[in-house]
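Model the whole thing, not chain by chain.
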Amino acid sequence: MKIRLDNVIKTFDTFRAVHGVSLEIESGELLALLGPSGSGKTTILRMVAGLEFADGGHIFFGDEDATDIPVRDRGVGFVFQHYALFPHMTVAENIAFGMKVSRVKREKAAIATRVEELLRLVRLEGLGGRFPSQISGGQRQRVALARALAVDPKVLLLDEPFGALDASVRRDLRRWLREIHDELGITTLFVTHDQEEALDLADRVVILNEGRIVQQGTPEEVCREPNSAFVVSFLGDANRLPASVSSGRADLDGAQLAAPELADGPAEVYLRPGDLDWSTTGSGISASVIRVIDRPDARRVLVQTESGHALELDVPPETRVQPNERGFVQIRRARIFARTADQA
Amino acid sequence: MAATRSKKPPRVGDHPIFRLGLLAAVLVLTALVVVAPLVVIGVQAFSAGADVFVATITDADTRHAIFLTVATALIAVPINTVFGVAAAWAITKFDFTGKRLLLIVIEIPFSISPIVAGVAYLFVYGLQGVFGPALEAAEIKVLFALPGIVLASMFVTAPFVARELIPLMQAQGRDLEEAATSLGASGWRTFFSVTLPNVRWALLYGVVLCNARVMGEFGAVSVVSGNIRGQTNTLPLHVELLYHDYQTAGAFAAASILALLAVVTLFAKVLLERQGAGRAGRPALAAPQTIKTETLT
């Protein structure tokens, strides 16, 4: 089902959590709401679910205005960060709960069959008799998903679904959620503060900051064409260097970059560590090595430029580099944004 | 090396002397403070012979006192249980202005001497009180009758159930209720199949405490009941009355009934817990993950 948010506003006491957000989620789409804490992403999700009411604007499910439909009747499946499984019910009872309390009466046998089906879907066959405290975190989250899916929701909403799990379990569950989504084709909206998770899983990513949408697009679009300094720095490690632009060229610490679209004046250059190279000879920003950090896939070199700015760069693992070595940082790719008042 | 090591306690504070000392202190204090008085009650109750004991408890006044005490408990405890659950629910699951004030107000009976409560009720429902004349005109007797006793007992025990539930329900957060409603459950359904099962032991404990206090309440009840023998005397008041009448054995006999009622409620609680815990080997409620929810968010 297609979901549409039209200028939705939410205020808590005096704090405005969501400022007029408009958003369309296509039927069958897997969409990520990505942002730092306090960006309003969870509030938006909870408003779509009906767990919070919007103070302004409208939420449409298909053509129906769902803004004032209470959560009970909205027909959403909600998966909580900490699972919220009923601790006094078995896994099977948890999954069956929504079908038992539904206004639509179901036969006991039909419920049991559906529970078995869902247990198979989330690959937990045979665990129906366990209690939530007797299974692992990853398994609990799968039960929570099965429970949400049991009521045939119009839309599946997940609030930081993998936030409480360890890294390897998280990666497996992520791929698995994508498979389930592709299999069922249910419109899915999930909230995360982990950019890797959003980019890995979603068809489209909506990046939020301070209650507003900053950018939305496919993972490729937001990665390749970030529209603001915030998006660049939020999506991954980035060095920030002050620069000054004059007649289409940015000057930073002695290096020159083309900046044809910017007006003259102060600017900020964002450099990803992987977009920088190190060499002991040649041209570039002259700097000296402070520290080298070894990682499985690369060596991260921390350098200080002659004008005192710290930079981080990733070089191939076989690069020979040592602290106190002097050399040059070469820029392969950079993003330049005019400096705005609030970025002092 | 290994030999010297084995002499040391495996953990800090695990030294045998420390352990035995602590255990002994607890046992001695329990014996002196709790067990000894209970034994004395039992012994003294039968000190003048079993026939005096039987005579005391079959005495019409004593039987009426027992009846009154049980009747008061049967009215006051359910009302306070509903009140406590409602208050705990409101405080932990909703946000509203005056929430902190409500928390403080609920606790007032804990900090006020029961006798003050009794006197306050006198001024509210007494003949010279606020509602006195109106009640008199309507021929409703509140003071020196069962309603007054029930009201005073309810005042004194109002916080018991709520106080047991609030910390637990706060720790559990709202996730479970939100999950239940998002799955289509009604408010009542959510309460009975999700909220209540998760707080039932705390609730039971609150009810037991509340009941024990209602049955044992002396100060507030003595002011509002008027101590009319055979009419408005509850068991605790009756014990005092007998004691002042120099009927020591009788006083202890009545006291033993009161103690017995308390012990029976405690056993009932343990039994209920056993039964609940045994059923289908359900794990302890308030499972760790629900509590974690609150601390992490």
